[in-house]
UniProtKB/TrEMBL annotation:
All copies of domain Major facilitator superfamily (MFS) profile, residue ranges: 7-385
Protein name, as recorded: Arabinose efflux permease
Subcellular location: Cell membrane
Organism: Weissella jogaejeotgali
Predominant location: membrane
GO MF terms, alphabetically ordered: transmembrane transporter activity
UniProt keyword Iron-sulfur, yes or no: no
Lineage: Bacteria, Bacillati, Bacillota, Bacilli, Lactobacillales
InterPro entries for this protein: MFS (IPR011701), MFS_dom (IPR020846), MFS_Efflux_Transporters (IPR050189), MFS_trans_sf (IPR036259)
Recorded topology in the membrane: Multi-pass membrane protein
Keyword DNA repair listed: no
Membrane-spanning parts: 9-30, 36-57, 69-89, 95-121, 128-152, 158-177, 204-222, 234-254, 266-286, 328-350, 362-380
């Protein structure tokens, strides 16, 4: 039991450092725009580029992992550390983009491997718990990492933020080497085309569409969270750091609630929750006219944003374990792949909304994607109703 707790901590730490590195751009958006003399909308496309590269590279890497998965984890973690170190020394915006691309290339595969390790080390009663906590590592990054990184950036400069991320990455690599099983292999892995057969299953392609639209709906708004706090709601920098922390707590609550939903009604609960999220987002322009009502609305989005994660992850893994064992590692990455495709789509859409209609209207763009997630969830539940439950 002690070994399981230590290994679980390391897997959660991996997701934390991945989330810290990915999400910190949102906290230092204004600082990067000032440093490199580009607009906030242009800097916001760093989120789009990162997520798009993440989504494209992850299935390619995960589907070709044929050897020892522990060795793959260590190599990818070292590349991740190098990419963040390169960001520290970026002399211009182009090198900054390149460094973010390097980090993005390996981040999704690291999440996938973490999920694969989780299914091996966790006893069945603890599987939903560990999966929800691996997802929650990203929320903990929002709670502590993004506000801390934002404070460091404001106080010492954004490069010191990435020095912190790089040092934490080195520590994480050391812990991976010391604690995780060294002999984990993916079994029954087929040819790359055999692995991708899983995407022909309606339970999978509907899940993919749900995850993409769900994250797109949130990131139309979330990419521009700091500018909304500073420009639309007129909070000063010190208060913004506190608000980012509170928002992170809301997203952590969201991930933990996601685990509870997975252990109860699962995806059957999601249509009602998506209806609530749709209402919260589409009415956001009205809420943002008042500082405190706007803040409440933003925090409600934080609570709703990750509720689908654990039910959908366990559903996908259940499909793979029962019907597509050759695609298990690929299946474990599906959630993160299409989350980032959704992030890329949502942040790009957010950039268009901000450029053409202003910050106040990002919620309406998010609501449109949420409506598609709602429709897809209803369809998936109908498909699942005709089959044995997989979670």
């Amino acid at each position: 039991m002690k070994e399981f707790k230590i290994q679980s901590f390391v897997l959660i730490l991996i997701s934390f450092i991945l989330g810290f590195s990915e999400f910190i751009i949102i906290g230092i958006l204004d600082d990067l725009a000032k440093e490199f003399s580009v607009s906030v909308a242009t800097t916001g496309y760093l989120v789009t580029i990162f997520a798009l590269v993440y989504a494209v590279s992850t299935p390619i890497i995960t589907s070709t992992l044929k050897n020892n998965l522990y060795h793959a984890m260590v190599v990818l973690a070292l590349i991740f550390t190098f990419g963040n170190a390169l960001t520290i020394f970026a002399p211009n915006y182009t090198i900054l983009v390149i460094s973010r691309i390097i980090v993005a290339i390996v981040s999704g595969s690291l999440v996938s491997l973490s999920m694969t390790f989780a299914t091996v080390i966790a006893p069945m009663p603890k599987r939903a718990w560990l999966v929800s906590w691996i997802f929650s590592g990203f929320s903990v990054a929002s709670v502590f990492g993004v506000p801390l990184g934002t404070w460091i950036s404001t106080t010492l400069g954004w490069r010191f933020t990435f020095i912190t991320i790089t040092l934490l990455s080195i520590i994480t690599v050391f812990l991976i080497i010391k604690t995780l099983p060294h002999n984990l292999m993916q079994e029954k892995q087929g040819h790359i085309l055999q692995q991708f057969v899983i995407f022909k299953d309606p339970r999978i392609y509907l899940s993919v569409f749900i995850q993409t639209c769900s994250l797109a709906g949130v990131y139309v708004f979330y990419t521009y969270l700091r500018p909304i706090f500073s420009k639309t709601l007129s909070f000063n920098p010190g208060v913004i750091t506190l608000l980012l922390t509170i928002f992170g707590v809301m997203s952590l609550i969201s991930n933990q609630a996601s685990g509870r939903i997975a252990n109860n009604k699962g995806l059957l609960s999601m249509p009602l929750l998506y209806i609530i999220e749709f209402i919260v987002l589409i009415t956001m322009p009205l809420w943002l006219q008042n500082t405190w009502l706007g803040t409440v609305d933003i925090m409600l989005v934080g609570i709703l944003m990750y509720l689908v994660n654990s039910p959908l992850q366990l559903h996908i893994m259940g499909v793979a374990e029962n019907d597509y064992p050759q695609s298990l590692v690929l299946a474990s990455s599906i959630n993160s792949i299409f989350s980032n495709l959704g992030i890329s789509l949502g942040s790009a859409a957010g950039g268009l909304v901000v450029s053409n209609f202003g910050l106040n209207n990002v919620g309406i763009g998010g609501a449109a994607f949420t409506a598609f997630a709602l429709i897809s969830t209803v369809m998936l539940n109908k498909v699942n109703a005709a089959r044995e439950p997989l979670y």
